[in-house]
Amino acid sequence: MYDLSLKFNTFYNSHVVLSQIEQNNLYKKRDLNIQRLEEGLKEYNEENKTSYSIKEICVQGSVAMSTVVQNEDDDYDIDVAIVFDKSELGDKGAQATRNMVANTLKRKTKQFNTEPKVKTSCVRVMYADGYHIDFAVYRRTYDKWNNCWIYEHAGNDWTERELKGLSEWFTTQNNNSDGKLRKIVRLSKMFCNSRKSWKNMPSGLLQTVLCDEKLQESYERIDELFYYTMKKVVDRLETNTSVTAPVDQGRNLTPRNSDTQRMTNWKNRLKSKLEDLEVLFKEDCSRADALQAWYGFFNHDYWNEQITETASYSSQPILKSVYSFVDTEQYIEDLYPVNLSCYCKVSCNVSGNGWRPKPIVEFLSMLQHYIPHNFEIRCTMEHTNCPKPYRIFWKVKNVGPEAERRDQIRGQIVEKENTIVEHSNFYGNHYIECYIVKDGVCVAKERINVPIGRV
Questions:
Q1: Residue 143 CB: number of other CB atoms within 10 A?
Q2: Which of 87, 133, 163, 352 has the greatest number of beta carbons closer than 10 A?
Q3: Which of these CATH numbers, 3.40.720.10, 3.30.460.90, 3.40.50.10540, 3.90.249.10, describes 20-163?
Q4: What pTM value is reported for the model?
Q5: What is the helix (H) or strand (E) element at residue 263, kind and residue range?
Q6: Strand intervals (E) in 15-167
Q7: Mean of the per-residue pLDDT values for the chain?
Q8: What is the pLDDT of residue 427?
Q9: Cα separation of 4 and 221, whole Å?
């Protein structure tokens, strides 16, 4: 794998890890809103002749795990758990307790554009600049037999939940990995946040659990550590998109269809962008190719630098730059539900430069596994066991740094007839996919890999 570890480390330290100034800003907002909550609760008690009091405050989530990453939209999430005694709350239900917390916050956040919002699992305070603070509500009882507190979270109902379990689990796992886990989680979050058009990506918790599950600790270089861990994450999600918590008796973290869709989105987008990194393993991969590939992966201007190279036929340096491009790739799962209950057979014939049409497999075996430039590539959906009527969609994806330099990623999914014709215009491991859609569901798909050689 082309070694860009020094540049990768700089990217991680300068553009991924949240600066201390920004971290302090998060802590300041956290402390200020805890103070607002306590002052609002005092007023609430005076008005309603109650005596509720917060017994514990615990920072949770990415702030507690220190996996918050830089975000150009300043959309930072701060998770804070507040704990009441069950004896004080009496028979107050989970929803009623969250409503009470929202009431106390509203008293001290009247200057906000948006009132605190009661959600299923928390009460959210939104800042105009994108920050938000989620107050998760708990109640506790003391188990004298086991000499410990039992905590219950206010969700749809009161549910037993560990208060500090996840943070403690992460600290242990990160320490055992010599700090590698935190690095990979942060980089994974940067990838998932890399395109504004990418909606419905998995939460930080889901990413954290899978990064821990598939962490490839044997790699010391940060670029290799990240690449091979993400490859294993894709392999895992190909067979199973469900995730269970490492605490709380292994509760299901993906119980809803929307959770499954988020994991599928992560898998498809990650798999596609990892394919663009295959150039890093080519013997003739240049520094310019490697930089372009990582730019395409993270979609971050840090990788957009000029590279000085010397051509073999000249002693004069040549300046190359990393090119920006429009990421136009679409994913069938974003357009239609996918239930691959059928199959389709797609033929692909290659011709050009005096060669009569030959099946692509036969052609590649004769020409060192690459198609030359300016050849015709004709794909036909020959057969499917899906009963008519159905619709045929095609996707042509140009893979690699040359496609990015030319701003020719393509990858849009379009409806066409059963045959499409393309041409081998530039280098890369490209591919063509065919989809059969019936009654609004993708029931079959087939991929043809189209490797094109250098000029």
A1: 10
A2: 133
A3: 3.30.460.90
A4: 0.86
A5: helix 257-276
A6: 56-60, 77-85, 117-118, 123-126, 132-143, 148-154, 158-160
A7: 91
A8: 84
A9: 9
